[in-house]
């Protein structure tokens, strides 16, 4: 048994009582999302009517899942906490680092060689700390989570944007950064902006070529890429219950494309069937016993406008297949209008590659529907016009699909089966004939921003369901409509593709020989974590030093950043991602994207020790080497964007003691606090203008530090004059302890050792 039955049982025992308690306080009916959220409040968090989109609330999720790219820094940090085991069931999934090139077997073998040090680290650290490890080739994080771990009414976080996939099994599953995973794995409270609620009422029933993917493609067109920001999308209505569990997961997965915090469906008989088919009858029985708590209250159905901030209605019976793109997932085209759009926009008509599968669309049902289309190519003597690839989401799905002849159908039309991994979905694709001209591909994945799949800015990527992608690959033209058009076969006859036929769950059951799971040691105390000291990609962390107990004096201004400064400006992604497990190496990108307010340039700041201009990381290193702390000054909403923990760890590593800004993005502010830095805001935002390029800075009042009490900053200017300004902070008592200890993890370690 892979799932933690005791934990699930505990959640189900507590859930009814917690929901009843919350309902009493709120004194109104509750949506499903609210039930799950209120049932997962962190101990001590007050129960009240939270202001949606405004209040930050502390939660205690049940599980953590990490993919191999983001897991590296999260686990390096976890090691600093001094714990012998993770506080909640956690898993690592090796899916992001496998390059798709020649097919599953060869690609996997190459990845095992190329990423050996990362895999060795992740498997040994998992083994030591009680974390389930899914080997390279075992499958894609979200598919594996759905098949093994997700459960109705649960709450989890995952270090990947498409974690909401588990909403298909009724779970509140949220994509986060590594720092959040560390919080939950160490047993700390996990903070979330209490989300707004968008209700999507589904009526009718899908038919013909329309599939669950088309529901979310349609929703993306309505909400656009920003429309779901800070909201949970909750699907309800009789149409919702008519969708398979894996279809629901596809819809939830792509909620990330509209910026939603997560998406969720209510527990129903389709979830029950999926739980049973994947060997979790005991979970289904438990869910069944409290099922009214795993669905919204009846009044919510009757009067949705009263309980959701926005309501969208979609009639599945009338839903057409959609094709979204290019370059953005919210450009939604109903199939009947697509050919016209291709013509009008002059998109390359020829389809060069069709790619199906991925974490979004590789369920058994998806593969059977696509295979039923592929099969027709042979039967109707059609020559397939485009290249075609299939990415199974897990070894279980792959093995079962092979057993049932589905992979044969794909291979018969020239399909290449890729490793059970992200591959082309994340840009890990060495595309054959990647042309230097406008060209079109169609995928059943979720994202289609420029360069996402093949790194080629001229590739127009369109997103559709696997069966639509398969039909288009056969036709080889974007102007084809399988619902109305015929194709000329090898005998010169006009033939038409029949509607796809799917099988929700395999008649002979799922099967797998080696699912790729490695259970951790019962007692990991003797397990050694493998990190090669020569590695450029991985480096063990050393704890940051504790506060010296006195005011900070003689700090140098590192940079006064002007305008937008997101976590991407602070810690750039792209080529730097290969160093995400090596703090010292990745710190060479510190603030290189930020604009210096004094010269309007990026990555060019004055080194006050030499008077010369140099790159930000180099200047920071120079101050650090001289034993001098530094200060970063910023503008409004400093640190917005992803919750990337590197953006807080790097300045700390390079000697920054305080970040003083007009305002912070909340998550980054908290991340700075956790790393033991001072996150401060100008009491008078106009004081930003008083900071000069050659300033030496004192921060006073730390010895009498108290929540709500401002600190004093003295700016010593080069001409000998000074400015004394007030700065505010939002530290509570507990957070100030993080500062004193040098970081939140230092504090946890002290407490674990106590
Ligand atoms: Fe993400 Fe695609 Fe992998 S969405 S988890 S990169 S398959």
UniProtKB/TrEMBL annotation:
Catalytic activity reported: citrate = D-threo-isocitrate
Database matches in PROSITE patterns: ACONITASE_1 (PS00450), ACONITASE_2 (PS01244)
EC number: 4.2.1.3
Required cofactor(s): [4Fe-4S] cluster
Gene3D superfamilies assigned to the protein according to its UniProt record, in alphabetical order: Aconitase, Domain 2, Aconitase, domain 3, Aconitase, domain 4
A GO cellular component annotation in the UniProt record: cytosol
GO BP terms, alphabetized: tricarboxylic acid cycle
Pathway it works in: Carbohydrate metabolism; tricarboxylic acid cycle; isocitrate from oxaloacetate: step 2/2
Family per record: Belongs to the aconitase/IPM isomerase family.
NCBIfam families cross-referenced by the UniProt entry: aconitase_mito, PRK07229.1
Protein name (database record): Aconitate hydratase A
Lineage, opening ranks: Bacteria, Pseudomonadati, Bacteroidota, Cytophagia, Cytophagales
């Amino acid at each position: 048994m892979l799932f933690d039955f005791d934990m699930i049982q505990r959640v189900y025992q507590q859930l009814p009582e917690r929901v009843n308690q919350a309902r009493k306080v709120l004194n109104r009916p509750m949506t499903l999302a609210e039930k799950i959220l209120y049932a997962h409040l962190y101990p001590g968090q007050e129960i009240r009517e939270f202001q949606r989109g405004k209040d930050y609330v502390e939660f205690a999720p049940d599980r953590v899942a990490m993919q191999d790219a983001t897991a590296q820094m999260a686990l390096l940090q976890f090691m600093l906490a001094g714990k012998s085991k993770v506080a909640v069931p956690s898993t690592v999934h090796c899916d992001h680092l496998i390059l798709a090139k020649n097919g599953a077997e060869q690609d996997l073998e190459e990845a095992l060689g190329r990423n050996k040090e990362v895999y060795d680290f992740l498997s040994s650290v998992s083994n030591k700390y009680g974390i389930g490890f899914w080997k390279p080739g075992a499958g894609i994080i979200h598919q594996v989570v759905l098949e093994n771990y997700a459960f109705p009414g649960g709450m989890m976080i995952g270090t990947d944007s498409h974690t909401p996939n588990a909403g298909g099994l009724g779970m509140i599953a949220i994509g986060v950064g590594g720092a959040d995973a560390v919080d939950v794995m160490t047993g700390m409270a996990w903070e979330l902006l209490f989300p707004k609620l968008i209700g999507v009422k589904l009526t009718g029933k899908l038919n013909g070529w329309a599939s669950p993917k088309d529901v979310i493609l349609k929703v993306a067109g309505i909400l656009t890429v920003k429309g779901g920001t800070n909201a949970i999308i909750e699907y309800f209505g009789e149409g919702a219950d008519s969708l398979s569990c894996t279809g629901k997961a596809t819809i939830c997965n792509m909620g990330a494309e509209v910026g939603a915090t997560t998406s969720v469906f209510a527990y129903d008989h389709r979830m029950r069937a999926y739980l049973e088919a994947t060997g979790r009858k005991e979970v289904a029985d438990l869910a069944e016993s409290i099922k009214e708590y795993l669905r919204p209250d009846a009044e919510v159905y009757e009067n949705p406008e009263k309980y959701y901030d926005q309501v969208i209605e979609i009639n599945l019976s009338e839903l057409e297949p959609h094709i979204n793109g290019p370059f953005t997932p919210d450009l939604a085209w109903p199939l009947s209008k697509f050919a016209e759009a291709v013509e009008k926009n002059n998109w390359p008509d020829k389809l060069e590659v069709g790619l199906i599968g991925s974490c979004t669309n590789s369920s058994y049902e998806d593969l059977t529907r696509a295979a039923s289309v592929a099969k027709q190519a042979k039967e109707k003597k059609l020559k397939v016009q485009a290249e075609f690839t299939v990415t199974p989401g897990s070894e279980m799905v792959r093995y079962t699909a092979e057993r049932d002849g589905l992979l044969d159908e794909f291979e018969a039309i020239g399909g290449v089966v890729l490793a059970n991994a992200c591959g082309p979905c994340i840009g890990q694709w060495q595309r054959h004939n990647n042309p230097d001209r406008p060209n079109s591909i169609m995928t059943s994945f979720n994202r289609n921003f420029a360069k996402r799949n093949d790194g080629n800015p001229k590739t127009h990527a369109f997103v559709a369901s696997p069966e639509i992608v398969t039909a288009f690959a056969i036709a080889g033209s974007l102007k084809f409509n399988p619902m109305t058009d015929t194709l000329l076969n090898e005998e010169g006859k006009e033939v038409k593709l029949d509607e796809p036929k799917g099988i929700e769950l395999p008649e002979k059951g799922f099967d797998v020989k080696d699912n790729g799971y490695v259970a951790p040691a019962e007692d990991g105390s003797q397990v050694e974590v493998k990190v090669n000291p020569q590695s450029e990609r991985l480096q063990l962390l050393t704890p940051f030093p504790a506060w010296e107990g006195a005011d900070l004096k003689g700090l140098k201004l590192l940079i006064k950043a002007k305008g937008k400064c997101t976590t991407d400006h602070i810690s750039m992604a792209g080529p730097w991602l290969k160093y995400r497990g090596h703090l010292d190496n990745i710190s060479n990108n510190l603030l290189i994207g930020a604009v210096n307010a004094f010269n309007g340039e990026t990555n060019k700041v004055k080194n006050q020790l030499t008077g010369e201009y140099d790159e930000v990381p180099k200047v920071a290193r120079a101050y650090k080497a001289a034993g001098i702390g530094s200060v970063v000054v910023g503008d409004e909403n400093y640190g917005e964007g992803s919750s990337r923990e590197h953006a807080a760890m790097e300045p700390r590593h390079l000697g920054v003691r305080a970040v003083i800004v007009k305002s912070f993005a909340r998550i980054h502010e908290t991340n700075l606090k956790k790393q033991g830095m001072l996150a401060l805001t100008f009491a008078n935002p106009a004081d930003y203008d008083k900071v000069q390029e050659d300033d030496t800075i004192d921060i006073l009042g730390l010895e009498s530090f108290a929540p709500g009490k401002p600190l004093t900053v003295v700016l010593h200017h080069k001409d000998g004059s000074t400015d004394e300004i007030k700065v505010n902070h939002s530290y509570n008592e507990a957070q100030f302890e993080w500062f004193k200890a040098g970081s939140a993890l230092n504090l946890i370690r002290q407490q674990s050792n106590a």
